[in-house]
Write the structure tokens for this entry.
Amino acid sequence: MLKGLGAGAAAALFTLAAPAAAQPMAQSAPAPAQAPTPPTIERAQGEEMIKGMFAQVDANHDGVADAAEQAAVLEQVKAQGAPETALAAIRRIFAEGTGPDGKLTLASFTKARMTAFDKADTNHDGKLDPAEQEAARVAAEKPKS
Ligand SMILES: [Ca+2]
Ligand SMILES: [Ca+2]
């Protein structure tokens, strides 16, 4: 699970946040062709990312991310050095995605994350631009008051 995803990338996918947050300034590397500005995420693209993320959590592919699978992801993200704020954000995202039947399913997870996507899309153009992604990431890592 989470193969090839760094802690930041995993957290970024969960929070639909800027990949820039996961890449602490690659200034020592030769100048990349692209500016480090994260790309704007289209709504359909965001949904694909969410489904991909669920597939990573649902290790046995039975359509439900159970408590053990959620715990395994948290362990892995933690082992990759994610800060406690990121772990807390992921826990909250799991909780928010849990349906009325107490299960975190692809459908309930996607629904909850797309609701978050729409909330983060503050100018309602159906896309998350870099500023909206950053604002969502900051909000996600803040404890709820
Ligand atoms: Ca499962
Ligand atoms: Ca927008």
Observations:
- The radius of gyration is 15 Å.
- The longest helix spans residues 43-57.
- Helices lie at 7-15, 43-57, 67-79, 84-97, 106-120, 130-140.
- The longest strand covers residues 41-42.
